[in-house]
Write a structure and sequence with these properties.
This protein is mainly α and about 200 residues long. It has 10 helices and 2 strands. Helix 1 runs antiparallel to helix 5.
Length: about 200
């Protein structure tokens, strides 16, 4: 393995490891940790703004945590060349903030929220947008699949069969907010990369 490959591998692995570690620590420290960190609307209104991000690292239980972490590692394994530390962090954090903001503005009836699923929807959409030209067919399937999923979930035909498995209601609005914000973040990063590369070529 070359030095460049080794550097890329560390860059790729550090973010999912960090997210997994934070989520596991919070889970092991529950219920006290989630009480302090989860998205709780009335407490955010009182100024506890960190909950807009930290709530995504909290989970309903072991099954909920396990499914989310499995999904996260799967997404990162699908895009090892795309989801570097910086790119992955930008998409992940922007999806978390967009999801929490979307819930705050458009779903005032939602008092509490936990979980990484919305951020994962954003992560896969953002990565697929950035990587689109390299693997057009595969990324088209991913983008259409996630889009179809969130539209179905937010339609009258959706049946929440996951609730009994994870121990709580699936908040499907969050998946929609996460997916849209991830796609937007991916587009912004893609445009920024092209502008940056173009400037480098002009300078050179």
């Amino acid at each position: 393995m070359t030095t460049q490959d080794n550097t890329h591998w560390r860059s790729y692995i550090i973010l999912p490891l960090l997210v997994s570690s934070i989520s596991l620590i919070i889970y092991l420290a529950d219920p006290q940790a989630s009480e302090l960190l989860r998205y709780q609307r009335h407490l955010i209104a009182q100024g506890e703004l960190w909950r807009l991000v930290t709530g995504h690292f909290c989970h309903l239980g072991a099954m909920h945590l396990g499914l989310n972490l499995l999904g996260m590692w799967l997404v990162f394994s699908l895009f090892p060349q795309t989801l570097s530390l910086k790119t992955g962090a930008v998409i992940l954090l922007s999806s978390m903030m967009a999801c929490s903001s979307g819930l705050w503005i458009f779903a005032p009836q939602v008092e509490s929220y936990v979980g990484l699923s919305a951020a994962l929807h954003g992560l896969i959409m953002g990565a697929a947008v950035i990587d689109f030209r390299q693997h057009v067919f595969t990324n088209s399937l991913l983008l259409l699949g996630v889009l179809a999923k969130v539209l179905w979930e937010n339609s009258p035909y959706y049946s929440d069969t996951m609730s009994t498995l994870i121990g709580g209601q699936v908040l499907v609005q969050s998946h929609l907010f996460g997916a849209v914000s991830g796609a937007v973040a991916g587009l912004i990063l893609l445009v920024w990369r092209r502008v940056y590369i173009k400037k480098e070529r002009i300078i050179a």
